[in-house]
Backbone:
């Protein structure tokens, strides 16, 4: 059972996360409306880029970080069966994230930091934007430290015992975030802030982009971690089945930890400051990330099949019909896998050095990114919130029909939103453009696709609103008695775990080693070059 103070801590993280998510969702829909032929251009592109910066920063830095932190605190007490150690520090981390969010968003709303989610050097915004982002990261690092401390306390009390899978996976996400966030932290602290504070007037934009690529792609796997923890530890139990293999789950999280870091340069395929050899190396390692994804698809599909057969399913596919499709968790995992499949297929294009030329910086990238994050990941955030909420509030959630409707709308809306983006991306429509002249005969055929994406975004907004209403209803529902929270159990007793699957020392060494190999050369080479800096461009000035 969760301690009452810990319940309040988790609810605080979740509510701020989901409020930030919904505000960012509204901003995203406004952007699609402004870009569409449904209305005349607003006349000021700066307003558009304010919305892009706020949308990306909230969705990328605030929302998933708070979800991971809140879920992590829940895992400590529910999986380790011990009170959270360092609860006061946890609240300090939470308030740092909140204060950092406000600190960053104020200059963005004032038009002083329209530098987008990627910081976009040599464009330089107001210093408080970067300080706010740093505070968010520091708050999350407190969470990382607390996850390690709590595991150490548990190990001291349980010498030689196997670390429960949820906590093992939770640590993978925490360690991954601590290492991957280091790239953006170095970029901000040592390259951007000195310029934003007026100590320098130039910046090495190429080197800054390499440091950000350290964070740019691996952060996606940090976002994925809560969703994957839900796949392995919540879905089989929620649908009445068993986890196919505890060991395979651990191997998947280990592989994500090792291979998700040294791949970010594939975002810089068109950047001249990185050599082709390094780009090839990162392309190879990008392909390696498909291995834990495929392991997960196999393991979870097998776990779902176990549930179907336990429910009486017969034959090659009879188990599919026997699955509890009325269960929101079952719907969520099915939708997530479908969206992950489409998004992953698009990712094969992005990781190819040759094919990337055709879609780089087009709306294709926007479609791919939203399928992975907005589709496969966020829909599982909904599911894990639905699963935990009664245990956080002690009250019954709204009817399953409303939850299923919300999930269906999100799935349909994401398809309607992203598929046209892929189409217009192939046609060459650039992303991050504030305005299109649809009277131009070369652009006019794309107008319908843009309108369709606006409709998809509207469906998503409705779904997001329903999600908040379901959670609010969970605070006003009937008080109920709940059994102890359970995570999924493995289908078979796999015996004593080898040390390599019960700790992270070896894998952290590999993660750091591969990162040094893949990033050490381009970073050291760029740092050794002279006269690579360019004049910084303060927001609002002419370049």
Residues:
């Amino acid at each position: 059972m969760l301690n009452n103070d810990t319940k309040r801590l988790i609810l605080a993280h979740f509510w701020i996360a989901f409020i930030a998510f919904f505000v960012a969702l509204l901003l995203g829909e406004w952007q699609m409306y402004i870009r569409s032929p449904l209305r005349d251009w607003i006349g000021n592109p700066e307003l558009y880029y304010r919305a892009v910066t706020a949308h990306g920063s909230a969705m990328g830095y605030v929302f998933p970080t708070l979800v991971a932190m809140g879920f992590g605190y829940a895992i400590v007490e529910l999986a380790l069966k011990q009170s959270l150690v360092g609860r006061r520090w946890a609240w300090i981390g939470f308030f740092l994230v909140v204060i950092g969010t406000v600190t960053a968003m104020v200059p963005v709303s004032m038009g002083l930091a329209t530098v987008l989610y990627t910081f976009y050097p040599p464009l330089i915004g107001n210093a408080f934007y970067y300080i706010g982002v740093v505070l968010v990261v520091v708050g999350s690092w407190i969470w990382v430290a607390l996850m390690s401390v709590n595991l150490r306390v548990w190990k001291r009390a349980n010498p030689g015992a196997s670390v429960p899978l949820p906590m093992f996976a939770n640590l993978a996400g925490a360690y991954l975030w601590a290492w991957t966030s280091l790239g953006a932290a170095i970029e901000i602290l040592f390259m951007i802030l000195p310029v934003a504070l007026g100590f320098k007037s130039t910046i090495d934009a190429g080197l800054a982009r390499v440091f950000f690529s350290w964070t740019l792609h691996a952060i996606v796997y940090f976002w994925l971690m809560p969703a994957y923890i839900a796949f392995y530890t919540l879905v089989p139990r929620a649908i009445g089945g068993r986890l196919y293999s505890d060991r395979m789950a651990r191997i998947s999280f280990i592989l994500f930890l090792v291979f998700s870091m040294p791949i970010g340069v594939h975002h810089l395929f068109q950047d001249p400051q990185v050599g082709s050899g390094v780009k090839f190396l990162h392309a190879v390692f990008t392909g390696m990330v498909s291995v834990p994804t495929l392991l997960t698809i196999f393991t979870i599909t097998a776990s779902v099949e176990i549930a179907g057969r336990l429910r009486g399913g017969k034959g090659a596919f009879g188990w599919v019909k026997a699955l509890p499709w009325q269960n929101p968790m079952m719907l969520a995992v099915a939708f997530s896998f479908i969206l992950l499949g489409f998004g992953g297929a698009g990712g094969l294009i992005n990781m190819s050095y040759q094919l990337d030329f055709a879609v780089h910086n087009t709306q294709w990238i926007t479609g791919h990114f939203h399928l992975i994050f907005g589709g496969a990941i966020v829909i599982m955030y909904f599911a894990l919130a639905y699963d935990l909420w009664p245990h956080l509030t002690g009250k019954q959630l709204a009817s399953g029909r409303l939850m299923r409707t919300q999930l269906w709308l999100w799935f349909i809306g994401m398809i309607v939103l992203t598929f046209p983006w892929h189409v217009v991306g192939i046609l060459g429509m650039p992303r991050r453009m504030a305005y299109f002249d649809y009277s131009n005969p070369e652009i006019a055929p794309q107008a319908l696709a843009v309108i369709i994406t606006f409709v998809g975004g509207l469906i998503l907004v409705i779904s997001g609103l329903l999600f908040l209403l379901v959670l609010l209803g969970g605070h006003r529902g009937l008080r109920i008695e709940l059994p102890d929270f359970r995570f999924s159990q493995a289908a078979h007793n796999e015996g004593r775990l080898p040390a390599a699957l019960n700790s992270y020392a070896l894998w952290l060494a590999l993660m750091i080693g591969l990162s040094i190999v893949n990033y050490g050369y381009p970073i050291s080479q760029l740092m050794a070059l002279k006269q690579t800096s360019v004049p910084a461009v303060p927001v609002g000035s002419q370049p």
Summary: The first helix runs from residue 4 to 35. The radius of gyration is 23 Å. The beta strands are 123-124, 202-203, 534-535, 537-538.
